[in-house]
Design brief:
Blueprint: H1 3-12, H2 18-29, H3 43-53, E1 58-66, E2 71-78, E3 83-91, E4 94-98, E5 102-104, H4 113-117, E6 119-122, H5 125-140, E7 153-156, H6 166-177, E8 191-195, H7 199-206, E9 213-217, H8 223-229, H9 238-252, E10 256-262, H10 270-280, E11 285-291, H11 305-317, E12 322-324, H12 338-345
Parallel strand pairs: 4-7, 7-8, 8-9, 9-10, 10-11, 11-12
Antiparallel strand pairs: 1-2, 2-3, 3-4, 5-6
Helix pairs in contact: 1-2, 5-6, 7-9, 10-11
The protein binds S-adenosyl-L-homocysteine and iron/sulfur cluster.
Length: 346
């Protein structure tokens, strides 16, 4: 709920509306959901308000760390048994949290572990926010290596297609970026929404007046290949997706991230680098090359490092800003969807 909704809900329970602000301060400011810590609320009201307005949503089913504790991945079980994953990644000077927007995903990209399992359901705004709140709390309480910290960046690059769960994701962006106590106070500029390319939803997002970054998972510059790597391309072609992306960039002034998973002998040829450069030339864009993280049983693997480097150099020679994504958490099934898939199997 937004701040006004919370006040109305508290009033409906027969409590003064300002209790909603107190609850919000506990949740978003002090990162607590425990009634016994809310000592400024009357003892009689605490339990009732927390039970009604802050029900437990996600239980940590499994936690895995690597990179000397700087990467921490959590598998969450929702109240109905659905599994979702989130990852905290600590870097010098920033902490990025990767969150899920859906349990599973219906977009069917064949290289993606989440896509292979199909869609279970949309997450609610609260379930998305709750992933971040849990991450923020473990950082604030120094439960992660590196001492106390705060979540500075959010990427919607966990399980699910955020723009297929538009209302909940938009609500989450607002709650994450509203200042404390209305929300978590994370700058919209530090939030990235990654999409497979749902054109009408990108256009709708463009009209919201946000300053979030948009990432587009392109993976191929040509429709022929993209039709197979990203099946939704059969509906919205490369040119249409990029048009919508450039309009988003124009409206927000933010550079669009073009995500490109490097798949050996599939999309890593020199001519495709040239074609990609032509598409992006003169645009407000930045390419993120991601070495493919092969999913179990996948016939595909990551590009040869030399080939990936040549691809990167080719883009750079054309004047396209390009970086290679730092891959965190490979040994902890870092590709989102892998942990959830393993849990469903057991
Ligand atoms: N559904 C959204 C966001 C979640 S996926 C999207 O597709 O953009 C986040 C990113 O991870 C996307 O760029 C996706 O293509 C990429 N990805 C998925 N599976 C991957 C894998 N096995 N290896 C590397 N990148 C992968
Ligand atoms: Fe869904 Fe993104 Fe995976 Fe495609 S890559 S199946 S859109 S989560």
């Amino acid at each position: 709920m937004d701040a006004a909704g919370r006040r109305a809900a508290v009033a409906e329970l027969g409590h003064p509306a300002y209790r909603a602000d107190q609850l919000s301060r506990h949740y978003f400011g002090r990162l607590t959901e425990s009634a016994h810590e809310m000592t400024d609320l009357p003892a009689s009201a605490r339990e009732e308000l927390v039970a009604a307005l802050l029900p437990p949503l996600l239980t940590a089913e499994k936690e895995l760390t690597c990179d000397r504790g700087m990467t921490c991945k959590t598998l969450w079980r929702a109240a109905d048994g659905a599994f979702v994953e989130s990852v905290l990644m600590r870097y010098p000077g920033r902490v990025t949290m990767c969150v899920s927007s859906q349990a599973g995903c219906g977009m069917g990209c064949p290289f993606c572990a989440t896509g292979q399992a199909g869609l279970t359901r949309n997450l609610s705004t609260a379930e998305i926010v709750s992933q971040v709140l849990n991450g923020a709390r473990s950082l604030a309480r120094a439960q992660m290596a590196g001492g106390p910290g705060r979540v500075s960046n959010i990427v919607f690059m966990g399980m699910g297609e955020p723009l297929a769960n538009y209302a909940s994701v938009l609500g989450a962006v607002r709650r994450l970026s509203d200042p404390v106590p209305d929300g978590l106070g994370i700058s919209q500029r530090a939030i990235t929404v990654s999409t497979v390319g749902l054109v009408p939803a990108i256009r709708r997002l463009t009209g919201e007046g946000l300053t979030c970054r948009l990432a587009v998972s392109l993976h191929a510059p040509d429709d022929e290949l993209r039709d197979t790597l990203v099946p939704v391309n059969r509906r919205w072609k490369v040119a249409e997706v990029l048009d919508a992306a450039w309009d988003y960039a124009a409206a927000t002034g933010r550079r669009v991230s073009i995500e490109y998973a490097m798949i050996r002998d599939i999309n890593d040829q020199r001519w495709r680098a040239d074609a990609l450069a032509r598409l992006l030339s003169g645009r407000l864009a930045h390419v993120n090359l991601i070495p493919l993280n092969p999913t179990p049983g996948s016939k595909w693997t990551a590009s040869d490092p030399d080939v990936a480097e040549a691809f990167q150099r080719c883009l750079a020679d054309h004047g396209i800003p390009v970086t290679v994504r730092d891959t965190r958490g490979r040994e902890i099934d870092g590709a989102c969807g892998q942990l959830a898939a393993a849990s469903r199997q057991t």
